[in-house]
Amino acid sequence: MIGIFDSGIGGLTVVKAIRRVLPAYQLMYLGDTARTPYGNRSQEKIYEFTVQAVDYLFKQGCGLVIVACNTASAEALRKLQQEWLPIHYPDRRVLGVIRPVVEVAVSQSRYGRLGVLGTRATVNSGAYERELRALDPKLKIWQAAAPLLVPLIEEGWLKRPETIKIARLYLRELKTKKIDTLILGCTHYPMLHKKFQSICGKNIKVLDVATIVAEKLKDYLNRHPETEQRLVKGTDHRFLVTDITDIFAKTASVWLGEDIRLEKVNL
Fold first, then answer.
1. Which residues, in sequence order, are CB contacts of 168 under 8 Å at separation 6+?
2. In this model, does residue 2 exceed pLDDT 80?
3. pTM as predicted
């Protein structure tokens, strides 16, 4: 199985994209809904929670795990890959969402003027800026934290005018910088992708982050058959959460276009 971990509901955007791009593979989603959002947590706590989630997914039989949470990718992924994984699961792989998106952003940017919208933790970590400058030191990069968007999305307020107004306020400064490409640095944000594109206008390309992650995963599996062969095929997908809420169930069903059965687990 392919495991997909997020702090809450946002990683379902990646689930949806992977099911479209790689329909043959069985998926196991884990949302840490009892402790979401991660964006205002300390680095120590984010790492602790991420290790617990990845360990749980591996114990359930996942051969590869996507850390779909940008905050966890920024604050915990590198340490997890370099220190924890070689000791506990040397034959398994954990991938994040930042590097794939950065590669596409650099290749598609017309003028090298990029904006990053993310949680406070992701922005403060500097992870996107580091990865972008590693590929092209000459890039102009501006970032903006949008701490209110995750709870609004988690609440299912996708079409509420209040949510759109807040998104517009967060994007205002980035638009004044004449960016040509916008990175949505949180897997919740693609649920508002069309709204972001409308706010940004035709001169700014808002990257489809979830599709990028899915396409890059497909490429990774083609290049690593030893990992691909470990993955279970099938459509018996499982959706695990640390706390079942009506809002999560409703929003997940709307976003995926089908009713899903949630399983409550303890990490």
1. 199
2. yes
3. 0.90
Burial of 81 (0-12, 13-18, 19+ CB in 10 A): middle
d(Cα 156, Cα 118) in Å, to the nearest integer? Answer: 19
Q: How many whole angstroms separate alpha carbon 143 and alpha carbon 129?
A: 9
Alpha helices in the chain (DSSP H): 12-21, 43-59, 70-75, 77-79, 85-88, 98-108, 120-125, 127-135, 149-154, 161-176, 193-200, 209-223, 225-228, 246-256
210 neighbors 190 (Cβ within 8 angstroms): yes
Q: Cβ distance 68 to 7 under 8 Å?
A: no
Residues 151 and 37 sit within 8 Å (Cβ to Cβ): yes
With H, G, I as helix, E, B as strand and everything else as coil, classify residue 233: strand
- Sign of the four-CA dihedral 191, 34, 5, 254: negative
DSSP 108-138: H-SSSEEEEEE-HHHHHHTHHHHHHHHH-TT
pLDDT in tens, 197-242: 999 999 999 999 999 999 999 999 999 999 999 899 998 999 999 9
224, β-bridge pairs: none
Whether 94 contacts 56, CB under 8 Å: no
Catalytic residue set: 69, 186
